[in-house]
């Protein structure tokens, strides 16, 4: 009985979320972006997420020229679908609305090359690749076991070796990508402007002034202060209330 009730509630929530998503799309088509935002955010409050939901919500904020939430939700959409060209394009347009023009210092070395490669796919995608290759490995094993001809056995054996290598490679890439994402803590400045401090206290010296929409990476937390790094590798402290973590 409890399982049936739980299933009913789940289906009911999915139905409500779908209705709210469609309603948000209708409001967006009518250029009623405020109501579209309300519809999309009502889905988020239920714990649901998808790249389409975040993308549409970001588009709504972009239309209202609200730079910080637009960039924030484009970034969240990109986390779920890192290869989506449309999300990347719209994110670049949104970034152009931000006041701060901070240089991006490219990282170099083996870790950079490895991160560039593994980030081509989400770690879930790497996991599914490993599962599919494992299934093919099983088929090759069955063929090898039941085959009566030496040539066929050789082919299946080579196939097993290739699939095993692919499984190990995919699994390792997935684990690396998951660890990389878990260790990376990006955030978006939501305050209209906030000083970047040299120390985690209000009386400390200001290194620079940051504005809404700027992306930072959280390194450390002390009380209500966050030590962050900018894309030009500048570091400093800002108040926790001034930013919103992407994940």
Strand and helix layout:
Elements: H1 2-29, H2 33-44, H3 51-63, H4 67-80, H5 85-95, H6 110-118, H7 123-146, H8 150-183, E1 186-189, E2 193-197, E3 206-211, E4 215-222, E5 225-229, E6 235-239, E7 243-245
What does this structure look like?
It is a single chain. With 247 residues, the chain is α+β, with helices and mostly antiparallel strands. The protein has three domains: 2-95, Serine Threonine Protein Phosphatase 5, Tetratricopeptide repeat; 110-183; 186-245, SH3 Domains (SH3 type barrels). It is 59% helix and 15% strand. It contains eight helices and seven strands, in the order ααααααααβββββββ. The protein has helices at residues 2-29, 33-44, 51-63, 67-80, 85-95, 110-118, 123-146, 150-183, and strands at residues 186-189, 193-197, 206-211, 215-222, 225-229, 235-239, 243-245. Strands 6-5-4-1-7 form a five-stranded antiparallel beta sheet. It has a two-stranded antiparallel sheet with strand order 2-3. Strand 5 and strand 6 (235-239) form a beta hairpin. It starts with a helix and ends with a strand.
